[in-house]
Amino acid sequence: MLVAALLAAVSAGAAVAETGLPVPRFVSLRAGEVNVRSGPGVRYPIDWVFVRKDMPVEVIGEYETWRKIRDITGTSGWVHQSMLSGHRTIMISGDVGELHRDASVEAPVVARSEPGVVGDLLTCAEDWCQVQVTGGHRGWVERSKLWGVYPEEEVE
Asked: Are 96 and 24 contained in the same domain?
């Protein structure tokens, strides 16, 4: 799966960092409290603290063991790699996200999620992604209503 994601990212124009992973790429926060610094190292001041475990963020740069990340609002800063996880999550963005039984707007809605809800990214097929959100609700959401997955990215 990692090889497929790497090949998809590279073919979509992403660069490959020294770690061998594509930049940019989506990851999630490993802890419920993550310090975001103004530069790559402990000598740089903490600009703010993320307090939401599993929130998806985008890695947009790397320097040694530090990753420059960006959140859904476009705010960026540096975190230590140990505070990030390769576990893929999404955040509902825009309007209320409708989870459908199948990957179609005609499919019955099985749940609705407010913007900002975080869930697990399970798979994507064309314009739809299957997700699981709080409460165990699982369904298909239009890719355009999610933060944490690229428009053409293949997710298995």
From this structure: no
